[in-house]
Write a structure and sequence with these properties.
Blueprint lengths: L1 H38 L3 H6 L3 H12 L4 H29 L6 H16 L7 H20 L8 H20 L8 H27 L4 H33 L15 H22 L18 H19 L10 H12 L11 H17 L9 H9 L10 H8 L5 H24 L5 H9 L8 H25 L4 H6 L1 H12 L5 H16 L7 H26 L4 H24 L6 H30 L10 H38 L1 H32 L4 H13 L20 H20 L8 H44 L8 H12 L1
């Protein structure tokens, strides 16, 4: 086992090295193309591309970790950015006149133009915005610096030509010596993910059939090690999907891989694999037993192996059409069907429920990977239909821009645009005051790293400053060592690009710090005739510090709410969304298309809320404390883990409910006894639902407390001012529900008893109906068992959340003594009554 783990780790290390080397060599090739064009190209080209620094910046923005499709998209985005910035700049410069530009006028022009570029929000791509903002800084600041020598038309055209040189170098670098296509990357990552999922499935099956606890835990641990690599592969697949759309025309032979398999793999394989892992970790002892077995599970190894083979072949069938290995023999399907149809008894003990849930996830895997003939479910046809529609697969189209603008000036658009405008304007103004010749370096780092979403401002500013210093120092050393040998200086960029590729993937620096380090070195080693390197380096570092200081000041002014406060608010929103979703998935009734769509929307909303909470927690963990209370990241991490588990459990509850709804109408019409048993089953589910939702409601109220000392003071004042002789009765306090393990086990036992009564209502007239009866019974057993297992697991997670909430409130109120959450809730309710 240790040999397998070490080989897996070494394979991941080799894959990381290959990816970083490939990215660095492609980036170096693109920078070499720019250097040849701007240093050794024909004189007309060198005169047109008079700003080689921005050509390198464009290369770094487009080609970093890109495919050929991403580079083609980058050329289109550069064209769109040029249309947004250069056209209005020509008009404004002709109206104002370059000779009449001043430092304040240039800063004001940058602020107004950047506000217009940032205002559309999601209508324009982030790369297009960064290129456009960088062009705006160069257009007006250099227009002011060299106002005696430039013209209103030729200067913007030089900026556009410099951008074009950098943009066109990217697809050329990604085409030589052979193209690095997004379709090929998707194909290879899909194959690797299917292989990864196959190994995890086999390990889960071996753990399920293990004869002792030690063997089962060993198999589960090996599967957990593989899950991290599987998540990385899924992220790679999703990252290349957009670039694959741009390769559709020049590479039609790869069209079969231009689908959107990332989301499909997430839904059909990854979520079910997490469910199987949850089921195995919930099993108390091995070997496992099933309700239909008198002893250990003996005869299902062949069925599980064939089931895994079927799932993997079906997955390859819709991922790789035409693959001969994806054909499924009929004998395999018959053996699997026979095994699952033998499960026709509802568990009598709660210990059987994890095993039933494991088999439910296996059966759900099979149904999710079954090829569909419906055009709506075919990922290839669905993708082709979406790309031939309104947007034609392009991330930027004028009709969508018009719809996004639509005169809807919401704060979500205005605030980021105004922050971008103000920070750039101040950076340019103070940068020009410090040094007129190098003033554009204060605004350019802000422009090329713009993001409309909320970010960890202090961390990003820190890593950008450190990356800039590292890259600049490396560039100065390279110029000192190879001052007279320009080709050698360019070659010295290769090891630095390799190092920065690893830097981008590190937690310490991340993409922002890695890109800043690359730009800092390239701007010195890839140019000449810019003066002494040491003076240029010092000026650029100081200007970068001025720009980042302006960015931080604007963020503090416009966004005073701390990430820790946002995480607290988002946690309350997660509790509310979870309550709605629990009600939706546990209320049995007729599930028509409208209710089905609402259920899916509710599940998606819960998932989005939890993901937003994760982003807030990530930002709060790196946020400086200053004079505030430190962020309790460990407690929030446990809360986030429980919330993610609850999201997965609600996903499985939804699938179990869908099948139960299909059979419940037939059962109600069959006999009065079946209808009565279903009513009892609904009552049992209502108990679980009320217990979970009321607890989450209590957590919302507890999380709304700002200070326990203030709460106690208000409670004393309220009790002191109460007039007992007034005759007014106070509202009764609603106690927090008790989540004792014994009561939950009684509720589970009642549910299982009523489930057996429901199952007795299924009968047939004989003949061919016996097979249908067994199939329905097996599906009912799996769905009923999965539903109650998920609900009981939900209550366990609710108990974990209660412990974490108590710890969190105690952390925020260290001087107060908190006995338990119920006493705290009674105080809140007494104050509000």
């Amino acid at each position: 086992m240790m040999r397998g783990i070490s080989s897996g780790v070494s394979e991941q290390a080799r894959a990381l090295w290959r990816a970083c080397l490939a990215s660095a060599l492609r980036t170096a090739l693109a920078c070499a193309v720019v250097a040849c064009a701007t240093l050794y190209g024909p004189p007309p080209l060198r005169r047109a591309a008079s700003l080689p620094a921005f050509s390198y910046v464009t290369v770094i923005l487009v080609v970093t970790d890109a495919s050929l499709g991403d580079a083609l998209r980058g050329c289109w985005l550069a064209l769109c950015a040029t249309a947004q910035s250069v056209g209005p700049a020509i008009l404004s410069l002709r109206l104002i006149g370059p000779a009449r530009l001043s430092g304040g006028t240039a800063a004001l022009a940058v602020a107004l133009a950047s506000f217009v570029v940032a205002l559309p929000g999601a209508a324009t791509h982030g790369t297009a915005k960064r290129i456009a903002l960088g062009q705006i800084v160069l257009l007006y600041v250099i227009g002011y610096i060299e106002k005696e020598r430039i013209e209103a038309v030729t200067h913007p055209l030089h900026v556009a030509a410099s951008t074009a040189v950098g943009a066109l170098a990217c697809p050329l670098a990604l085409s030589l010596p052979f193209p690095r296509t997004a379709g090929h990357e998707i194909k290879e990552n899909c194959r690797a993910y299917v292989e990864n999922a196959s190994k995890r499935l086999k390990l889960f099956a071996r753990a399920f059939l293990a004869e002792d606890d030690a063997s089962a835990l060993a198999f589960i641990s090996r599967a957990k090690c593989l899950s991290h690599a599987g998540n990385k592969l899924l992220q790679n697949i999703k990252r290349y999907q957009e670039g694959a759309l741009w390769e559709r025309v020049p590479f039609t032979s790869l069209r079969s891989y231009h689908t959107s398999p990332g989301e499909r793999l997430q839904e059909s394989l990854e979520t079910q694999l997490r469910g199987m892992e949850t089921a195995l970790t919930s099993i108390t002892s091995f070997p496992v037993t099933l309700p239909d077995d008198d002893g250990p599970l003996k005869n299902c190894k062949l069925a599980l192996d064939e089931h895994i083979t079927l799932i993997m072949r079906q997955s390859k069938g819709w991922l790789f059409p035409g693959d001969s290995t994806s054909t499924v023999p009929e004998s395999i399907s018959e053996n699997i069907t026979g095994f699952f149809e033998s499960l026709h008894r509802v568990p009598t003990l709660p210990d059987h429920l994890p095993s039933i849930f494991f088999l439910f996830c296996m059966q759900l895997l099979r149904s999710k990977t079954t090829p569909s003939t419906s055009p709506q479910d075919n990922p290839l046809k669905k993708d082709e239909q979406s790309t031939t529609g309104e947007e034609s697969g392009l991330p930027f189209c004028f009709r969508r821009v018009w719809n996004e603008w639509g005169f809807k000036m919401s704060p979500k658009r205005l605030v980021p645009a105004f922050k971008c405008s103000l920070s750039l304007g101040l950076a340019v103004l103070f940068g020009l005051i410090y040094s007129k010749e190098d003033g554009y370096w204060a605004g350019l780092p802000i422009a090329v790293s713009y993001s409309s979403a909320r970010e960890a401002t202090f961390k990003l500013a820190n890593v950008k400053a450190q990356g800039t210093v590292l890259g600049t120092v490396y560039g100065v050393l390279g110029c000192f060592l190879f001052q007279r040998f320009l080709p050698v200086r360019l070659l010295s960029l290769v090891p630095w690009l390799v190092f920065c590729s690893f830097l981008r993937k590190s937690k310490m620096y991340g993409p922002a710090g890695g890109v800043s380090a690359v730009i800092g070195a390239v701007l010195i080693l890839g140019r000449r005739n810019f003066g002494p390197p040491s003076e240029f380096a010092i000026a650029r570092i100081v200007e970068t510090f001025i720009g980042l200081s302006c960015l931080i000041a604007v963020e503090l002014l416009m966004q005073p709410t701390r990430a820790a406060s946002l995480a607290k608010r988002q946690l309350t929103d997660c509790f509310g969304a979870l309550r709605e979703c629990i009600v939706a998935v546990t209320t049995l009734g007729v599930l028509d298309n409208a209710k089905m769509s609402r259920l899916e929307e509710t599940q998606k909303r819960v998932k989005m809320r939890v993901l937003e909470l994760g982003k807030c927690i990530e930002e709060a963990e790196v946020e400086p404390n200053f004079w505030f209370l430190p962020f309790h990241s460990a407690c929030y991490g446990r809360l986030l883990g429980s919330l993610f588990k609850m999201v997965d459990l609600l996903h499985f509850c939804g699938h179990a409910r869908k099948f139960l709804e299909q059979e419940s109408s037939a059962l109600e019409a069959a006999a009065a006894a079946s209808k009565e048993a279903l009513d009892k089953l609904r009552s049992d589910l209502a108990l679980f639902r009320d217990l979970a939702t009321s607890s989450l409601k209590c957590f919302e109220e507890i999380n709304s407390i700002k200070s326990l000392s203030l709460l106690e003071k208000q409670l004393q004042e309220a009790s002191g001012s109460c007039d007992l002789e007034s005759g007014k009765a106070t509202k009764p306090n609603r106690p927090m529900p008790c989540l004792d393990e014994g009561d939950v086990e009684k509720m589970v036992g009642s549910y299982l008893q009523h489930s057996r009564e429901v199952l007795h209502g299924i009968s047939s007239d004989g003949g061919d109906g016996v097979g249908a009866e067994n199939a329905i019974k097996s599906e009912m057993v799996l769905s009923l068992g999965a539903l109650i297992h998920c609900m009981s697991s939900l209550l366990r997670e609710v108990r974990e959340i209660e412990k974490a909430m108590k710890e969190l409130v105690q952390w925020e109120n260290p001087t107060s003594q908190i006995a338990n959450s119920r006493d705290l809730l009674r105080e809140i309710q007494a104050l509000r009554s």
